[in-house]
Amino acid sequence: MKIHGFQKTTLLDYPGHVAATVFTGGCNFRCPFCQNGSLVLEPEGQPLLSEEEVLAHLKKRRNVLEGVCITGGEPTLDPGLKRFILQCRELGLLVKLDTNGYRPELLGQFLQEGILDYVAMDVKASPENYGRATGCPGFDVGKIRESIRLLQTGGISYEFRTTAVRGIHSVEEFEEIGKLLQGSAAYYLQAYRDGGDVLGMRNRFLKEESSARETERMPGVKGSFQEEERIPGAEGSFQEEERIPGAEGSFQETERTPGADRSAGNGIMEAFSRKEMEEMAALAGKYMDKVELRGVE
Ligand code: SF4
Question: Where are the domains of the chain?
């Protein structure tokens, strides 16, 4: 698995456990409020850690660590994910997977095989607003519904979570999110944090940069990024043997969400107030027993 980041110890990422967190790169969504813009848009430009080294560290620390969180980016796009999960399990570690829920077939397979202990799935918005929240107009919410169903019936611990962003969400739509998640075990509402690596802000920056560099464009670049938004030098940075078959960029074309639009969300994005977040929690809470706020001041 391609590991682009490693947090050696966390008390926050895996509820109730001391864990380490590994970060994969690339994603098939383009959520404008994504906090890991670089990891999503230009994983090839991020440092790559050796899987062996990470596993060796986990082995050395397994008397302290109880689990491993695998996050991203979107980990289910990495063809080495299963092998890495199995290697962690061999070390006696619990495995938590963070996912955007767009690959229910893989999630279902992992659940059936019993190789996950906890799944945290992002629920980006109400069904009507999913395309906007993910930067992917024409979004297929059927896959999200299927992943929700799989987790609700999968027999392992799970949580759903939404980062609430003014400019993307409305307070009222949390009633619809509640309906979508009806009967779920746990739902968390997270506050949006502004930051330098927010994807929507990077898109805007990259657009300005690339139009200024129009005359310097590298010859021969092609593929799924819009030409004017492509990061110079991005092509060819994968080793051939590591390249996912058919990929022009950092993930398979067939896995890119149809209509992915990197220009979405360049409007103003802000955090909601605590009062508004509590209203959202109350609306969603009509359909679930446990709805909590996370990171809300
Ligand atoms: S699903 Fe959205 S928030 Fe998560 S890594 Fe992908 S772009 Fe970022």
Answer: 5-195+254-294
Between the CA of 157 and the centroid of ligand 1 the distance, in Å, is 22
63 CA → ligand 1 middle, Å: 32
Q: Whose CA is nearest to atom 5 of ligand 1?
A: 73
Superfamily name with CATH number, domain 5-195+254-294: Aldolase class I (3.20.20.70)
Q: Which atom of ligand 1 is nearest to the CA of 100?
A: 1
Give the ligand 1 atom nearest the CA of 36: 8
196-234: pLDDT as tens digits? 789 877 665 555 544 444 433 333 323 232 322 332 333
Whole-number Å distance, alpha carbon 40 to ligand 1 midpoint, is 7
- Written in H, E and C, the secondary structure of the chain is CCECEEEEEECCCCCCCCEEEEECCCCCCCCCCCCCHHHHHCHHHCCCECHHHHHHHHHHCCCCCCEEEEECCCHHHCCCHHHHHHHHHHCCCEEEEEECCCCHHHHHHHHHHCCCCEEEEECCCCHHHHHHHHCCCCCCHHHHHHHHHHHHHCCCEEEEEEEECECCECCCHHHHHHHHCCCCCCEEEEECCCCCCCHHHHHHHHHHHHHHCHHHCCCCCCCCCCHHHCCCCCCCCCCHHHCCCCCCCCCCHHHCCCCCCCCCCCCCCECCCHHHHHHHHHHHCCCCCCEEEECCC
pLDDT tens for 40-71 read 999 999 999 999 999 999 999 999 999 999 99
